[in-house]
Design goal:
Elements: H1 2-27, H2 40-49, H3 78-81, H4 84-92, H5 94-97, H6 110-122, H7 145-165, E1 172-173, E2 176-177, H8 195-203, H9 205-208, H10 221-233, H11 262-268, H12 272-285, H13 312-320, E3 327-328, E4 331-332, H14 342-345, H15 348-356, H16 375-388, H17 406-418, H18 442-445, H19 448-456, H20 458-461, H21 474-485
Antiparallel strand pairs: 1-2, 3-4
Helix pairs in contact: 1-2, 4-6, 6-12, 7-10, 8-10, 13-16, 15-16, 17-21, 19-21
Length: 494
């Protein structure tokens, strides 16, 4: 890994040296005293590869999930993932199937859609079969009482997994939730998904779609089976039944979309002429621009696979897809806190426990999912933060190896309430608002120097911060920090 990084750095240095040489020769006119100018292209290259002085050099290159080459999933085994009826409707009108779909309407006729599906079926590998208890494959009305009770235990366990994993942070359901804005709407997922494929996806998301923005949760097989049962049976994942009997209900004409049935699909499998037609349609529609499609991907430039042999925190970062929500050094998402200075912001003992079992800090819609990270995973993350994600400009003399005096805590308390900070923040004593993070145990969570830095100018630390800048003096800030440092677990009211 180090050799690979040194090789990339060496290439960049050679490029820069070559540009300097080129600029020097181009500007040389045979007069020693003549002023030489630097080409603007060189300046742009230099700007691209330089890093701020207070940033440590990372041991690997960060991968930004929002700059992936292809946004669509791999289609090689889509015929095992989705029902053919669903695929048919999807190609005909994506947004009628998934309201937040990014795929465009290609305007294909039914015969063209049928040909496309025939081609997709022809490139599929052998599907993986999962062994399920027979009663789990039955309709509820066909179960015995004992079978229903057993199924319900699996269902309820899966419901708990869904809740703890906080899946609705990324996935909307019938338009509700999905604040991160990256996951598809799951409001009709049962009309699409194959139970065996869902099990395989939850087991290893990256195997099916290496560029997915979804995290690889550390679920056990039992949890995966429960989650699959919950998704396949709960009514929120099913289409709503239309009630045409409501008094005065407007009857909106719906244009019927002709769909390919399973029986029709079985009858066209292996039709070479239709398969060739489907491949031609896909080529002309340029589907391979967004999707990897067996037999067509070679039409796009080959992208180097940099993920073989990932280890340490680089592997955790990729598996969990931290940068889907967080930013590190201008790469990643903006939904969750910026981690560029996490090593000087967070107390690592607290951070390690939080990563293993995320607590409620921010409003409910902004909670971190529970990934079931191991002790080793959490240690790799915190070790990386305190070594590389630092702000070397923070003050170093804020309550270092000392506790704030009772007088400072009291003065900070008066300032906190007089400025109305509890209108947005709960403080663990008197309650408060939910707009900002809960400060009940902030003394366990944040380093005093970071608190001081943040209160000095909140938007300088986080340009998206809605916290006002009160123009506090350094002495006022120190009193506030003293009050907040005193907010630790076990204190009265916490």
């Amino acid at each position: 890994m180090q050799l690979k990084l040194l090789s990339r750095l060496h290439t960049k240095l050679i490029l820069l040296a070559a540009m300097v040489c080129f600029v020097s020769i181009a500007n040389y006119r045979g007069v020693a005293a003549q002023e030489r100018t630097i080409d603007s292209m060189y300046l742009e290259i230099d700007k691209k590869y330089q890093i701020p002085e207070d940033w440590s050099v990372l041991p690997f290159e960060l991968e930004d999930p929002y700059r992936r080459v292809k946004n669509g999933p791999i289609l090689t085994n889509v015929i095992h993932k989705a029902n053919v009826e669903w695929i048919s409707r999807w190609i005909a009108d994506p947004k009628s199937v998934v309201p937040n779909a990014k795929m465009p309407d290609l305007g294909l006729e039914f015969d063209e859609i049928k040909a496309v599906i025939a081609y997709l079926g022809s490139i599929a590998e052998e599907g993986t079969k999962v062994k399920w208890d027979n009663y789990l494959l039955k309709r509820e009305d066909d179960m015995t009482d004992e079978e229903y009770d057993n199924m319900d235990q699996v269902f309820q366990m899966g419901k708990g997994v869904w809740s703890r994993a906080r899946c609705t942070i990324c996935h909307p359901i019938k338009g509700l939730g999905g604040n991160v804005g990256v996951g598809p709407d799951l409001g009709k997922i049962v009309t699409k998904i194959n139970r065996d494929w869902l099990h395989g996806w939850l087991t290893n998301t990256k195997k099916h779609f290496p560029d997915t923005m979804m995290a690889q949760f550390r679920f056990s097989d039992e949890e995966i089976r429960g989650l699959a049962e919950y998704i396949m049976r709960d009514t929120q994942f099913m289409p709503e039944e239309e009630d045409g009997e409501e008094e005065g209900a407007a009857q909106k004409p719906v244009e019927e979309v002709k769909v390919l049935t399973k029986a029709e699909y079985d009858s066209i499998k292996g039709d070479n002429a239709l398969i060739f037609k489907g491949k031609t349609i896909i080529e002309k529609a340029r589907c391979f621009v967004c999707h990897d499609i067996k037999g067509l991907s070679e039409l796009m430039p080959v992208v180097e696979n940099k993920r073989e042999g990932l280890e340490g925190f680089e592997k955790v970062l990729y598996d969990i897809r931290c940068l889907t929500c967080h930013t590190i050094r201008k790469k990643g998402g903006t939904y969750a806190p910026n981690l560029t200075e996490a090593g000087t912001k967070m107390k690592m003992d607290w951070e390690k426990e939080f990563l293993k079992a995320p607590d409620i800090i921010r409003p409910l819609s902004q909670q971190m999912p529970k990934f079931n990270l191991s002790e080793d995973d959490a240690s790799l993350a915190t070790g990386f933060m305190e070594k590389y994600l630092l702000n070397k400009q923070l003050p170093s003399d804020v309550f270092v190896n000392e506790k704030p005096t009772a007088e400072i805590v009291e003065a900070g308390k008066n300032l906190f309430y007089s400025k109305g900070c509890n209108a947005c923040h709960a403080d663990g004593v008197k309650g408060g608002g939910v707009v900002g993070p809960n400060l009940g145990t902030v003394g366990d969570r944040l380093q005093p120097a970071y608190m001081f830095h943040h209160l000095k100018n909140p938007t300088a630390v986080n340009p998206r911060a809605i916290e006002p800048n009160y123009g506090f003096s350094d002495q006022d800030i120190k009193m506030l920090v003293g009050f907040l440092v005193d907010h630790v677990k076990g204190k009265e009211g916490n």
